[in-house]
Every structure is written in structure tokens, then in C-alpha cells.
Amino acid sequence: PPFLARGYMKFLLRVLMKRCKAIVHANPERIDYIDSVNGLSNKGRQFVIRNYPNFNEADKQTDVIFSKFKSWLGNSDCVYLQGAGNEARCGLESVRGILSVEGLKAVVVGKFDEKLKRQLQDEFGEELEKRMFFTGMVRQQVTPHYIRCCKVSLVLYRKNKPNNYYCEPNRMFQSIVNECPVVVGINPPMKALVDKYHFGVVLKDDGSNVDGISAGITSA
Questions:
Q1: What local confidence, expressed as pLDDT, does residue 85 receive?
Q2: What is the largest CA-CA distance in the chain?
Q3: Cβ distance 81 to 108 under 8 Å?
Q4: Which of 33, 136, 171, 185 meets the CB 3.0–4.6 Å disulfide criterion with 207?
Q5: What is the DSSP string of the chain?
């Protein structure tokens, strides 16, 4: 986070914390990290609220896009990706890992960077269209329908920045509550939960290794 990048900003963060009655974090690992770089004050006022999804049930009615997806999927096994175009989410490695598993398909729900998509089209040609379904933006209450059609969900974040490394996205919990195993990287918050409750598979890295992603999907 920017407040931890420079000494004077860290000092400002500590001053602001002293003026707060409560500081809320997404997970305990974030608190530990800020404390480790001497950015924490008022330790007794630090609290954790997990980044759970803000819905309990899917819409009863699906839409035309979902009907097209179901027809396209047929009886194939499918991987769930959400917003995989973001570089921090290992979009390129995720798609390469999926397409290296013979017969496997995937649905990409949400935004996907057009530049990255063109790069993948140049690399895989017609294979990309045959095995990757891009929904574009959909309402959050529709996403459970897609998740429930998938055998596994990829939730990957690079460890290049603390905000990514200590990420605990609600899309991980969306998959878990919809009984879809997750494949996560070594990011401490996600790794700790998956290791403890056996929700899926933890990779040996942050998702930078394509072969590791393929193996994680196969073993999930």
C-alpha cells in the first residue's frame, strides 16, 4: 500500500490510526504484515472482517448469455475464471494452463483485457474460441450459476505487491460456498484457509508457473 512505501507516509498512517476507534482489515495476515514493517499503532483497535460475498442466493432466472454458455459447454469439464484479464491475476498463465489440459474448457466471467485476448488469439487461434467462453460483465447474482457448472475455480494473485500477496478476494469465497474447489497460490491468507479446510489445492508458487496451474487443476 502507498502508506507503507515511504517513511513519512508510514508515520502519517500511524498518526491516522491513533485517531481511529477501529481499523478493519480483510485478514489477520494483513495486520501482521503492517506490523512487521512498523506501520501499526493501536494494536488493540485492529479488527478483521473477512471479504465474504454480499449475496446468499443466485437469481432464479438466468439470461441468454448463460443459455449460450450451457449449450457451448455440453458435457465438458470446465474451469471458472473471474476477471482473469488483470495482470495481477495471472490471466495469461491461467489460460495457458487450462488449454494445456486436453479437452478442458473454461468460462471467463467479467472483464478481460482486449490486448491480452488478442495475444491469446494469436497464440492459440481457433482453439481459444472452442475452449474459452467470455461472458463479459454479468450481474453478481448470476455468477453462482456459472460456478456451479465448473469443476474448479482459479483464484491467483501475483506476489509482486503486498496488496496482491495478502489478497483474500470474495470470488474465492463465492466458489467455496457454491461447492467448487479452488486452486490458489502461496498467498498467505488464501493458502492458510485452503490448507486448513481442504477447499482445494495450493500451488507451489503464486501462479506464475503454467505447468503448476495445469497440475493443480488436474489434482483439484
A1: 67
A2: 57
A3: yes
A4: 185
A5: -GGGTSHHHHHHHHHHHHT-S-EEESSHHHHHHHHHTT----GGGEEE-----S-SS--SS--HHHHHHHHHHTT--EEEEESTTSGGGTHHHHHHHHHTSTT-EEEEEB---HHHHHHHHHHHTHHHHHHEEEEES--GGGHHHHHTT-SEEEE---SSSHHHHT---HHHHHHHHTT--EEE-S-HHHHHHHHHH--EEE-SSSS--HHHHHHHHHH-
pTM of the predicted structure, to 2 decimals? 0.90
How wide is the angle at C-alpha 55 spanned by C-alphas 186 and 50, nearest 5°?
40
User: What are the Cα distances from residue 7, in Å, to 2, 3, 24, 38?
Assistant: 11, 9, 22, 10
Q: Which of 54, 87, 9, 85 has the alpha carbon at shortest distance from 177?
A: 54
Residue pointed to by grid coordinates 482445494:
200
pLDDT band at 16 (very low <50, low <70, confident <90, very high): confident
